[in-house]
Design brief:
Helices cover 59% and strands 10% of the residues. By secondary structure, the protein is an alpha/beta fold. It has two domains: 96 residues, Methionine synthase domain (Methyltransferase, Methionine Synthase (B12-binding Domains), Chain A, domain 1, Orthogonal Bundle); 127 residues, Rossmann fold (3-Layer(aba) Sandwich), CATH 3.40.50. The model has no long low-confidence stretch (mean pLDDT 89). The chain binds cobalamin (B12). Cobalamin (B12) binds next to helix 6, helix 7, helix 8, strand 3 and strand 4.
């Protein structure tokens, strides 16, 4: 019985006879790849292209920022963002539509095993540099209220939380960043000490979802009158509806609307449950 290798060799020989031009081209390409003269069209290139097409903005100036974030190059991101701010672009729009797409592509690539922790951290660094410039531009606006922001105990994923905090700040809220991997008692302490009106909590892992439940219930038990707006990839409306003193907000912008209503007194957390 012929082995797999025999069958492959038969097919190679058949191609050499029937299509010598293609055969020679493939042999030359193979040698050039092996010698490092050309790079292979890898899974990485193909998938990165697909993700860029899906997430990147079409405006070339915004695209330059997104690419700078993806490449982890704050030296590209900072001058590009400065130029866009000087050209009168809205800083909130820049965060959402120029800076965020870069980190989104990097994170999706990481998920596919196409990029690694250092690349995520460099992209995050480049994005944060851009966000800082946008925040500096917005400056001090009269505060619409005080929000505390945290990532649930055991969870270190804080990129989304930082974006959410930046967008809340840009919309006029004072945001106290409690950080990541935060125990419920720490959130309570910050809420009591700072006259916090709403807490935003997030988690990206299923194993750390209980941290959001515990925090919302502790804030209720301690009669703070402060609810927790929950978000992040591991969280859903159905999950949040299983415990009290919490509401689900899907995106940072949805959180801005909810915070405006709750802090403004026109709605309560219960109004967001259905
Ligand atoms: C980046 C990343 C990391 C980085 C985190 C760096 C950092 N500083 O955040 C590093 C490399 C450290 C990491 C580590 C781990 N990770 Co990880 N990680 C990711 C990854 C690739 C991207 C997450 C991300 O930042 N996305 C980009 C941001 C912008 O998106 P986002 O967080 O979802 O935020 C958006 C919304 O969710 C929302 N949002 C976010 N927060 C909030 C908050 C509020 C209030 C609101 C309203 C909205 C909101 O708005 C944001 C903007 O749109 C995901 C997979 C993925 N593609 O999502 C896995 C992922 C989250 N990681 C995972 C795991 C398992 C781990 C590790 C346990 C791996 C390991 N074995 O070591 C460790 C955990 C360490 C720990 N204790 O936390 C799993 C979780 C699985 C699960 N459901 O439980 C995922 C889903 C990967 C996977 N497919 O398995 N990870």
């Amino acid at each position: 019985m012929p082995s797999h290798m025999d069958i492959i060799m038969q097919n190679v020989e058949k191609m050499r006879m029937q299509d010598p031009v293609r055969f020679n081209k493939l042999v030359q390409e193979g040698m050039a790849i092996e010698l490092g003269i050309i790079s292979p069209v890898s899974k990485k290139t193909k998938s990165a292209e697909k993700l860029i097409a899906e997430f990147f903005p079409s405006d070339p100036k915004y695209r330059e920022v997104a690419q700078g974030v993806l490449d982890g190059k704050r030296k590209v991101v900072e001058p590009a963002i400065k130029a866009l701010i000087d050209a009168g672009k809205d800083p909130v729009d820049l965060v959402t539509n120029a800076l965020m797409p870069g980190i989104q592509v990097q994170c999706e690539m990481y998920d596919l095993g196409l990029s690694f922790v250092p690349e995520i951290l460099m992209s995050n660094d480049a994005m944060q540099a851009g966000i800082k410039l946008c925040q500096d531009k917005i400056g001090d606006v009269p505060s619409k209220g005080t929000i505390a922001s945290f990532v649930a105990a055991g969870d270190l994923h804080d990129i989304g939380k930082n974006i959410c905090a930046a967008i809340l700040k840009a919309n006029g809220f004072k945001v106290i960043d409690i950080g990541r991997d935060v125990p419920k008692e720490k959130v309570l302490e910050v809420v009591k000490a700072n006259n916090v009106q709403l807490v935003c909590g997030s988690t990206l892992m299923s194993t750390t979802k209980p941290g959001l439940v515990d925090t919302a219930l502790l804030l209720e038990l301690e009669k703070t009158g402060v609810a927790v707006a929950c978000g992040g990839a591991a969280v859903s409306k159905a999950f949040v509806n299983t415990f009290r003193n919490a509401l689900y907000t899907k995106s940072p912008l949805e959180t801005v609307h909810a915070a405006t209503d709750i802090i403004g007194g026109t709605k309560k957390w219960e109004d967001f449950r259905n």
